[in-house]
Amino acid sequence: MIELWLFTSNDCPGCEPMRRKVEMVISEMDDVMLKVFNVDEKDEYMDFARAFYIQSTPTLLIKKGDTVVDHIIGNVSLSTIEEALNGY
After folding, report:
1. Phi, psi of 53 (to 5 degrees)
2. Computed over its alpha carbons, how large is the radius of gyration of the chain?
3. Containing domain of residue 35, as a range?
4. What is the C-alpha end-to-end distance of the chain, expressed in Å?
5. Contact 57, 8 (CB under 8 A)
6. pTM over 0.90
7. Number of domains in the chain
8. Angle (deg, nearest 10), helices 78-86 and 15-26
9. How far apart are CA 88 and CA 78, in angstroms?
10. Percentage of the residues of the chain whose pLDDT score is greater than 70
């Protein structure tokens, strides 16, 4: 099972497009789950983001088991997301 944690914020123009791209890529993958954390909505999400050294949005963490195995910063292409996930 792979978990994707997408950190977003309200003033981020690339966050919503990135979320849609990630959802599109994983729509055909049974073993991938997406969790979205908007750091503007809850203080606990901001603290959570700090714990993982998130400094900009969007940032996508790729987790396998209990380990963060990769991350993607920014609103990247579909192929970049696919390539990152294909490695796991």
Report:
1. 60, 35
2. 12
3. 2-86
4. 9
5. yes
6. yes
7. 1
8. 50
9. 16
10. 100
Closest by Cα among 88, 84, 86 to 72: 84
For residue 57, what are the contacts with CB-CB under 8 A and spacing of at least 6?
A: 7, 8, 9, 12, 14, 15, 39
Per-residue pLDDT of 29-55, as tens digits, reads 989 999 999 998 777 888 889 999 999
CATH of the domain at 18: 3.40.30.10
Confidence of residue 56 (pLDDT cuts 50, 70, 90): very high
Amino acid at 72: I
> For residue 50, what are the β-bridge partners?
none
Q: Which residue has the tokens 């994983």?
A: 26
Please give the structure tokens belonging to residue 9: 């914020």
Which among 12, 18, 17 is positioned nearest to 4, based on CA atoms?
A: 18
Q: Beta 2-8 vs 59-64: how paired, if at all?
A: antiparallel
Whole-angstrom Cα distance, residue 88 to residue 60?
15
| 60 C-beta neighbours (distance < 10 Å), count | 26
